[in-house]
Amino acid sequence: MSSTIQRQRAAARARLERQMGERLEEARKRKQRNAVLGAAVALLLVIGGTIWLMRTVGGDDPQTPAAAPLPEGQVCTWTPEDANANKNLKDVGTPPTEASSKGTQTMTITTNSGVIEVAVNTAKAPCTAAAFTYLAGKNFFDNTKCHRLTTEGIKVLQCGDPSATGMGGPSFKMAEENLPNVTDQATAYPAGTVAIANTGQPGSSGSQFFLVYGPTTLDSNYTVLGKITKGLDVVEKIGAAGAVDKDGKATPDGAPKKPVTITSLKLTPAES
Questions:
Q1: How many other β-carbons are positioned within 10 Å of the β-carbon of residue 125?
Q2: 33 falls in which pLDDT band (50, 70, 90)?
Q3: 129 Cβ contact partners less than 8 Å away, ≥ 6 residues apart
Q4: Are strands 193-196 and 209-212 parallel, antiparallel or unpaired?
Q5: Contact between residue 208 and residue 160 where contact means Cβ atoms under 8 Å apart
Q6: 3-class secondary structure, 118
Q7: How buried is residue 57: exposed, middle or buried, by Cβ count under 10 Å (0-12/13-18/19+)?
Q8: Is 164 exposed, middle or buried (0-12, 13-18, 19+ CB in 10 A)?
Q9: What integer pLDDT is reported at residue 227 of this predicted model?
Q10: 109 in Cβ contact with 238 (< 8 Å)
Q11: Mean of the pLDDT values across residues 38-59?
Q12: Burial of 41 by CB count in 10 Å (0-12 exposed, 13-18 middle, 19+ buried)?
C-alpha cells in the first residue's frame, strides 16, 4: 500500500513539474514574441517619424499641401471716378489688378509733330505702366490733343486728356509711385522725364502725363513713368514755338501755339 501511494505521489509530482516547465516555456516564448513585436513597432515609429520629418521639411506631406508661392508682380488698386459727375471723364473700364513689376516697356507716342519714344520703367512704376498699357489697348489716347504747354519755371508739354480741358481722364485714379528721391526741386524732373500729372492730392494720378523738355522746378510729388529715348527734339521744338491763351495771345502757361495731336499711343507688352 505504501509503495502504491509513493508511486502516485511521484507521478503527481512529475506531472506538476512537467506543467510548470510547460508554463515557464510558454512564458519565455511570450516574452520573446513581445520583445520582437515591440522592436518592430519601435522601428516603424522611427521610420514613420523620419518620413514625416522629411515630408514636412521638404513640403511633400500629402496631408499638408505645400504653401502656394507668392504671385509675382504688383497688386494695384484703382479708385473709381464718377463719370456722371465729371463729363470730361472717359469710361473704358479698369485695368487688371495684377501688374508686372519687371523690366521696361517702350511707349511710342506718334504726334502730328513727330514720333516720341519713351522707356517706361515698369519695374519701378508697375501700376502706372499697367494703367497706360491698358488705356493704350483701348485706344484711349488716340486722336487726343496735348492741352497744356509751359515755358517758364517749368518746361513741360502736358497730354493724356481726351477732353483737352485739363479736367479729363479715365474713370479711375491710382496712387503715385516711383517718386524722385531728391531734395533739390530743380533736379527732381530733368529734361527727358515723362511723369504723371495729378491734382496735388495723394492718389489722384490718372491718364494725364507731362513731357519735360527743359529746366523744371517741381516737388517730388509726381510719378516718374519713364524717360524719353527718342524725340526729345520734337518736344523742344513745340516748346520753342510757345504757348497761347484762349484768345490766342502769348502766355507762359497755355495751349501749344502749334496744336499738338497724338494720333496714336502704343506700349510694348510687359514682361510676364
A1: 25
A2: low
A3: 99, 100, 105, 120, 121, 122, 225, 267, 270
A4: antiparallel
A5: yes
A6: strand
A7: exposed
A8: middle
A9: 98
A10: no
A11: 40
A12: exposed
User: Which cell goes with 269?
Assistant: 507688352
Q: Positive or negative, the Cα torsion across 83, 161, 177, 202? A: negative
What pLDDT, in 10s, does the model give residues 140-158? Answer: 999 999 999 999 999 999 9
Measured between alpha carbons, how far is 84 from 171 in angstroms, rounded to an integer?
10
CA separation for the pair 235, 212 (Å, rounded): 8
Residue 139 DSSP label: T
Distance, in Å, from the CA atom of 196 to the CA atom of 210, rounded to the nearest integer, reads 6
The chain-wide mean pLDDT, for the chain, equals 83
Task: Express each pLDDT in 190-210 by its tens digit.
Answer: 999 999 999 999 999 999 999
Which three three-digit cell numbers place residue 224?
Answer: 516718374
Q: Distance between the two ends of the chain, CA-based, in angstroms?
A: 111
Burial class (CB in 10 A: 0-12, 13-18, 19+), 88: middle
pLDDT digits (tens, 9 = 90+) for 72-119: 579 999 999 998 999 999 999 999 999 999 999 999 999 999 999 999
Pairing of strands 169-170, 89-90: parallel
Look at strands 148-150 and 156-159 and give their pairing: antiparallel
- Whole-model pTM: value is 0.74
Q: Which of 228, 216, 227, 209 is nearest to 187 (CA)?
A: 216
Three cell numbers written together for 63? 496631408
- C-alpha cell recorded at residue 161: 486728356
